[in-house]
Amino acid sequence: MRALVINPNTSTQVTQMLHAHLREHLPQTFALDSVTARFGGAYIASEAGYAIAAHAVLDAWATSTNEYDRIVIGCFGDPGLEALREISGIPVIGLAEAAMLEAATLGRFAIITGGERWRPILKRRAAAAGVAEKLAAIHILRETGAELLADRARALDLLAAAAQDCVRTQQAEIVLIGGAALAGMGEALAERLPFPVIDNVSAAARALLTPVSAPAADLDQIDYTGLSSELSVRIR
Question: Strand ranges (DSSP E) for the chain?
Answer without folding.
Answer: 2-7, 31-36, 70-73, 92-94, 109-114, 135-141, 174-177, 197-199
